[in-house]
Amino acid sequence: MTLFMRDCKIQFPQMINKSIMLLGLVVLHSTFINGKTTCKWQFVEEWHTQPLSYMVNWTLTENICMDFYGDCWFGDVNTKMNTSGNQVVPQICPLQIQLGDILIISSEPSLESPEINLMNVSEASFIDCLQNTTTEDQLLFGCKLKGMHTVNSQWLSAGTHYFITVTASGPSFCHLGLRLNVTVKEQFCQESLSSEFCSGHGKCLTEVWSKTYSCHCQPPFSGKYCEELDPCSYKPCENNGSCINKRGKLNKQGYECICYPPFTGIHCSEIIGQCRPRICFHGNCGNITASSFICECDEPFSGHHVHLFTNIYRQAL
Question: In angstroms, how far apart are the furthest CA atoms of the chain?
């Protein structure tokens, strides 16, 4: 079955010249150390409001990483081995882009003589370089790969996509490393398309191990879109009391203070002590410590328990 024989001319988007980020050219995503390519990652990325274009050089002479456990990915993030378990699988450094970005594949001249194309496959087929020769609907391009080709947006929906090199005949370039997995991330940082990102109180970020962009809020804001004000951020509980967020519950102030002895009160500012009803006959009782108190006397009374008239008041009578 002939999968891709004809040549075609690719029309590039108008915005391509405005912002092209080169992938795998050592500058951004890979370095060549001790004779092997190691992919480099920016652990945190902020959502860009305008689409960017990424170019991947489809070549065997650079940006082919060999070790899923170390060079292609760091640590144990998204690590994979081929199903045979005998060796790790070489591949072009994995790519992470955001939904709406443009991906361009650029083939080197030495690969243009064999008739090759790219095919969208499952993760298992990606790992073992298994191409489906019975269908053409998973081919990325309607012609053989030659020069620069823009990947149709249908292959760049949110999620992880696996592309391998397929040939009508001849050697399998996929096993040599000409395969690419692309993770396309969407953002969940707006309540609506017209809303400000993260309500203007945070940043729309993703970590390299995340599948989406989400809001990282600046204190004292919280919530999915940083739309909620956290009343506990102002530390209303005194004397090392713990603040419990009660927002959305039947609580007017939006929080509750959990106090530790000998403190009590709404803000843990009162002391559990000797004050009890009628201990100050003509005044208000205030605890000083857990074992002492003071009576604030009403005029014209005075005394330890405020039951005596002052001398001035007696003379006035």
Answer: 121
